[in-house]
Design goal:
single chain; alpha+beta; 6-stranded antiparallel β-barrel; 40% helix
C-alpha cells in the first residue's frame, strides 16, 4: 500500500490539479482525455512516489494523436476518454508499470488518486462488479462510502488487490439525478482497443482466442443467422441464464459466422468502434454488450489442463505456479463469463466438462458450443443444466416446505398467544403470502412429477417443466421467509412484553398485600382482576393489558395517599419492601 512509483499527479497550465496518470514507459503517461487541456502549451506531471521523495515535476505534452475524447451516443452511453502524454525528460524505467489484461468480474481493486482533500495522493478500495454501457466500462463499488473516487482521481491506475497488477484506469465519478454517485474504470482491454499502440506495454493474453475472431469473410449477406444471433446476444448481455449450450456443426457457415461475430462484438479489445454506437445498423437484438465475456477459448485439440491454465491466467491466478491450474481455479474467489467453443473436440471432453461444472458451481456463467449433438453434448446438458436445475428446484421445495410447515406452525402458535399490532392487515397479508407459498410448492411438486414421468419414458429435457420458474419461486421464498422472520420477531417481542407485565402485576399484588395487612379494597381488586384477565386471555392483547397493568400500578403507588395514612415509603422498617418498590415501577 506504499505510494506507487507509477502514480502521476497531473497539473494543468494554471497549476491546479487536473487529475492523475499512469507511467507506462519512461516518457509516456496514460490518463483520461478530459484531464488533458489541448489548448495549453504543456502540462506538468509530478511523481509523488519517487524513490528520493523529491516529487519531481516534468513538463508533458499530448503525444501526437493519442487522444480519444469521451463521446456519448443517443442513449447517453459514454465511450473513449483516454489519452497519452509525452514527458520532456524520461523517468527511470523501473518506475514505470505495464497494464495487465485480466477478467474484471467480482475483482477486489484499489486505485491511487489525488482528491482535493488528499492531494498528496491516497488509496481507494473498491470491487469491480461488471461491465456497463457499450464501451466495456466497468462499475466500481467503493469498499466504504468515503472511498468513492472524486475529482482528482480521473486517470488513476486501478490495481488488482491480490497481484498488484495495474488492470485499468479510473474514468470518472458520476452522480445521477437522484444523488447516487458512481465510479467507473476502463479496463486494459478497452484501453488497448482505443489506443492499439499500447499493446507493446500491456501484458496478459487477449480474452479472445484468435481462432474465434470474426473476419471480413463473415461480413457477407446471408451469413447472419438472426435468431441464433439474438440468443447469443441475450446471453452475452446477461439474460439471467447461467449456462447456454448450442450446437454449431462444421460446414454450417451461417451459424459459424454468427458465432464468431457475436463473440468478437462482445470482446472489449476486438469489437469494431462502430458497434459501440446505438445507431449500429445490424438487426435489432443481435449486438451483444461489450464485455459480455471475460474469456472465449477454442477447445479443439486442447487438454482440460491447458484450458484450465488459460482460465487461471485470465483470472490472475499465478501466485502459486507450482500448483496445478485446476487447483488454482478451484480455490479462486472470483467468477468469470466464459465461452468455450468445440467442447466435444477437446483432447479429453469428460475432464473438460468436470472443469466447467466446477466453474458453474463457483458462480461463473458458461456459453458452450458443441460440434455435434452426441454423447458429450447430452452429458453436458445433464451435468450442467438438468441436474443443477433439479437440485436448485429441490432446494426451493425444501425451503417452501419449511415456510409452509414449521415456520407457519410457529406463526400460528405465536398468534394464538398474542394479538399483533394492526391485527387485521397483519393476518391478511401473511395469509396471502402463505397461500402463494403453498401454490408455488404445489407447482414445483407437479414439475417433479412430470420429470419423473419423462424419466420413466426415457425422455430428455432441459430442467423444470413449464410453470416452474425457479427465479420467481426463489424470490417468493426469500420474500415470504423474510416477512415471516419479521413477524415472528414482532410477536416474540409482544410475548416477552406480556411476560414482563405478568411479573410486574404479580409483584405489585404482593406489595399491595403488605400495605393492606388483611384489609380489603374492592376498587383496587377490580383493577387487578381486569389486568389479570387480559394477561391470561389467549390471544393476549398486550397493548390493552399494558394499559390495565399501568392503571393498577398507579393506584397501588398512590394507595397510601388515598386512604389518608402513610404510604409504603413511610414504613420501610415494618414491611421491608423499600428496594422492591423501586424495581417494580
Amino acid at each position: 500500500m506504499r505510494t506507487p512509483s507509477w502514480a502521476v499527479r497531473i497539473r494543468g497550465a494554471d497549476g491546479a490539479i487536473a487529475g492523475a496518470g499512469i507511467l507506462l514507459t519512461p516518457d509516456r503517461v496514460l490518463t483520461c482525455a478530459h484531464v488533458v487541456d489541448r489548448t495549453a502549451d504543456r502540462m506538468t506531471a509530478e511523481f509523488v512516489g519517487a524513490a528520493d521523495r523529491s516529487v519531481p515535476a516534468v513538463p508533458a505534452r499530448l503525444d501526437g494523436d493519442a487522444y480519444v475524447p469521451e463521446t456519448r451516443d443517443a442513449d447517453g452511453d459514454p465511450s473513449g476518454d483516454v489519452a497519452l502524454l509525452r514527458l520532456e525528460r524520461p523517468r527511470p524505467a523501473e518506475d514505470s508499470v505495464r497494464l495487465r489484461k485480466l477478467s474484471t468480474s467480482t475483482r477486489e481493486v484499489r486505485m491511487y488518486g489525488f482528491p482535493y482533500e488528499h492531494n498528496g495522493g491516497i488509496w481507494f478500495r473498491a470491487t469491480a462488479v461488471g461491465g456497463c454501457g457499450r464501451d466495456g466500462q466497468v462499475q466500481l463499488v467503493p469498499a466504504s462510502p468515503g472511498e468513492l473516487a472524486s475529482p482528482g482521481c480521473s486517470g488513476a491506475g486501478v490495481a488488482d488487490s491480490d497481484t498488484g497488477e495495474v488492470i485499468g484506469m479510473v474514468l470518472s465519478g458520476q452522480e445521477d439525478r437522484h444523488g447516487n454517485r458512481f465510479t467507473f474504470m476502463s479496463p486494459a482491454d478497452t484501453i488497448v482497443g482505443h489506443l492499439p499502440r499500447l499493446e507493446s506495454v500491456t501484458t496478459g493474453l487477449s480474452g479472445l482466442d484468435p481462432r474465434l475472431r470474426s473476419t471480413s469473410d463473415d461480413v457477407v449477406p446471408g451469413l447472419l443467422d438472426e435468431p441464433f444471433a439474438q440468443r447469443l446476444a441475450a446471453w452475452l448481455s446477461d439474460d439471467g441464464s447461467r449456462v447456454k449450450i448450442s450446437v454449431v456443426r462444421h460446414g454450417d457457415a451461417a451459424r459459424e459466422s454468427t458465432l464468431r461475430r457475436a463473440i468478437t462484438l462482445a470482446d472489449r479489445e476486438s469489437r469494431p468502434p462502430v458497434s459501440v454506437d446505438r445507431a449500429f445498423l445490424d438487426p435489432p437484438g443481435t449486438v451483444p454488450s461489450v464485455g459480455g465475456h471475460d474469456l472465449a477459448v477454442h477447445a479443439s485439440g486442447r487438454t482440460s489442463a491447458r484450458i484450465a491454465e488459460r482460465i487461471a491466467e485470465r483470472m490472475g491466478l499465478w501466485q502459486r505456479p507450482e500448483d496445478p491450474a485446476l487447483d488454482r481455479v478451484r480455490a479462486a474467489k472470483g467468477t468469470l463469463n466464459l465461452v468455450v467453443v468445440g467442447v466435444d473436440e477437446a483432447v479429453d471432453p469428460p475432464a473438460v466438462l468436470d472443469l466447467l461444472a466446477m466453474l458453474r458451481t463457483g458462480g461463473s456463467r458458461l456459453l458452450l458450443v458443441f460440434r455435434t449433438d452426441g454423447d458429450c453434448c447430452r452429458r453436458a446438458r445433464d451435468q450442467l443444466l438438468v441436474r443443477p436445475a433439479r437440485e436448485r428446484r429441490a432446494r426451493i421445495v425444501e425451503r417452501l416446505r419449511e415456510i409452509t410447515g414449521p415456520l407457519a406452525k410457529e406463526l400460528h402458535e405465536r398468534l394464538s398467544a398474542v394479538v399483533p399490532q394492526d391485527a387485521r392487515s397483519f393476518g391478511r397479508e401473511l395469509d396471502r403470502e402463505l397461500v402463494a407459498a403453498h401454490a408455488a410448492l404445489a407447482d414445483l411438486l407437479r414439475a417433479d412429477d412430470r420429470d419423473r414421468e419423462r424419466d420413466r419414458e426415457g425422455g430428455r429435457h432441459p430442467g423444470p417443466g413449464p410453470g416452474a420458474d425457479p427465479d420467481r419461486y426463489e424470490r417468493l421464498a426469500d420474500r415470504v421467509a423474510g416477512r415471516l422472520a419479521t413477524s415472528l420477531a414482532e410477536l416474540d417481542r409482544l410475548r416477552d412484553r406480556r411476560d414482563e407485565l405478568t411479573g410486574r402485576l404479580r409483584s405489585y399484588q404482593v406489595l399491595l398485600q403488605h400495605r393492606l395487612q388483611g384489609e380489603e379494597d374492592p376498587a383496587v381488586d377490580g383493577l387487578y382482576l381486569r389486568a389479570h384477565a387480559l394477561l391470561s386471555a389467549r390471544p393476549c392483547d398486550v397493548r390493552e393489558a399494558e394499559a390495565a397493568v399501568d392503571a393498577y400500578t398507579r393506584r397501588v403507588d398512590g394507595y397510601g395517599d388515598d386512604r389518608g395514612h402513610g404510604g409504603y415509603g413511610d414504613h420501610p422498617g415494618r414491611d421491608g419492601y423499600g428496594d422492591h418498590r423501586g424495581g417494580g415501577t
